[in-house]
């Protein structure tokens, strides 16, 4: 039995969401209901999935998710929102997906199916690179960005730096379908690592800042928006 929490201050939306979950043909759920983020945070249960409203009084969905992540790194958080521009919430705790109100049965069920796929045991997502020291295999989530500097391409992770044997433009093309994007001629950034965008600066989750070229600003924001709306495991 899969345990799901619904947290929404709109009672009608909460009940409609519960109805759709109860009618889902692919699995049976134990459903807990909350109308405040504070009450969800006080729950003693662990959840596989949380459907979380963003715009709530007192503790909003973003802050609620941040606090949940401090004790549970694996729960799949699906934000439910009236906002279509998800880049507004790029600074938030990585969510599995974003769904627009009013909830569509088709979209909700599609996201549930994707959650179940991610819940299946799977090998880490390893990427392979040819470095100056040999072949490197690294989990894609550990990569922050790539940087072209002094005629060399550097791979930066949370803890290490490697020199790659490749062109940064070729790298951008090879990784474009894996959640990476080139916001500047000298950088390829992991969209998973993006915390926020302010003007022409991209802030990463480790506090570093990557430049965003004016020419690529709109295109990059669109790519990030698409990445978040597709739920590219921002579990975060």
UniProtKB/TrEMBL annotation:
Entries under InterPro entries matching the protein:
CheY-like_superfamily, LytR-like, LytTR_DNA-bd_dom, Sig_transdc_resp-reg_receiver
List the Gene3D superfamilies. Answer: 3.40.50.2300, LytTr DNA-binding domain
Where, per the database record, does this protein carry 4-aspartylphosphate? 53
* GO MF, one annotated term: phosphorelay response regulator activity
| SUPFAM superfamilies the UniProt entry points to | CheY-like
Is Cell cycle found in the keyword set? no
Q: Which SMART domains match?
A: LytTR (SM00850), REC (SM00448)
* Matching Pfam families: LytTR, Response_reg
Keywords tagged on the record: DNA-binding, Phosphoprotein
Keyword match Cytoplasm? no
Domain HTH LytTR-type, chain residue ranges per copy: 127-226
Question: According to its UniProt entry, what is the function of this protein?
Answer: May play the central regulatory role in sporulation. It may be an element of the effector pathway responsible for the activation of sporulation genes in response to nutritional stress. Spo0A may act in concert with spo0H (a sigma factor) to control the expression of some genes that are critical to the sporulation process.
State what protein this is by name: Stage 0 sporulation protein A homolog
